[in-house]
Amino acid sequence: MIKTVLFDLDGTLLNTIDDLADAGNWVCAQHGWPTFTVEQFKHMVGNGIPKLVERFSPENARTPEQLAATLAEFTARYDAHKEDKTAPYPGIPELLDELRAQGVQCAVFSNKADPLCGKIIAHYFGTGRFAAVRGNRPGVPTKPDPAGLYALMDEIGADRSATLFVGDSDVDILTGHNAGLPAMGALWGFRGRAELTAAGADALAAVPEDIFTYIQKG
């Protein structure tokens, strides 16, 4: 029986892509660089903000010094505008309340910078819905490395034999499997069925309620 559900953030709990794309394109425009569509940004995100910045930066602007400066620009812009268009996916707040009522603890594990994760989760979900929120922290490798996930499970006392990981990308499926957990794919997110299936998702959720149904079936 699943007693803990660990959620990815972007593309799983919150539809953040418009604010991420707007911040990225704003930075690009400041430098006279090419900009990108929202669909293109969906395939740039998922491996952390430093990797996103590297992906939208032209090849001639990828020295360590330039990337560090661009990362600072992007982070400041995104932090100031991260709630302009972002919203929870339909059914997510209700799912979280349903899981809590059934005694299933929930937590967030994201490649987004840790300080941004805490602020954005608190803004959209308040307090009490998650046992912990963990983003990318200095010195800890990003997903799909399971190191941060292990630390999160230890923090909240999650039994690895009774924990499910839910996310919308191949990175999330690999993260769950690298930690020895079943991994469920969220079809409403940024990547879609083909990528999740190819990554070996143990199950797919078309709507958030499917996660609750999966847990009930054991």
From TrEMBL:
InterPro entries xref list: HAD-like_hydrolase_sf (IPR050155), HAD-like_sf (IPR036412), HAD-SF_hydro_IA (IPR006439), HAD_2 (IPR041492), HAD_sf (IPR023214), PGP-like_dom2 (IPR023198)
Cellular component, GO, one term: cytosol
Any Pfam family the entry gives: HAD_2
Family matches, as Gene3D superfamilies: HAD superfamily/HAD-like, Putative phosphatase, domain 2
Enzyme class label: hydrolase
Top-rank lineage group of the source organism: Bacteria
KW ATP-binding (keyword) present: no
Keyword Protein biosynthesis: no
Keywords per UniProt: Hydrolase
The enzyme's E.C. designation: 3.-.-.-
GO molecular function, one term: phosphoglycolate phosphatase activity
Any one GO BP annotation for this protein: DNA repair
PANTHER family noted in UniProt: PHOSPHOGLYCOLATE PHOSPHATASE
Protein name: HAD family hydrolase
Organism from which the protein derives: Faecalibacterium taiwanense
Lineage: Bacteria, Bacillati, Bacillota, Clostridia, Eubacteriales
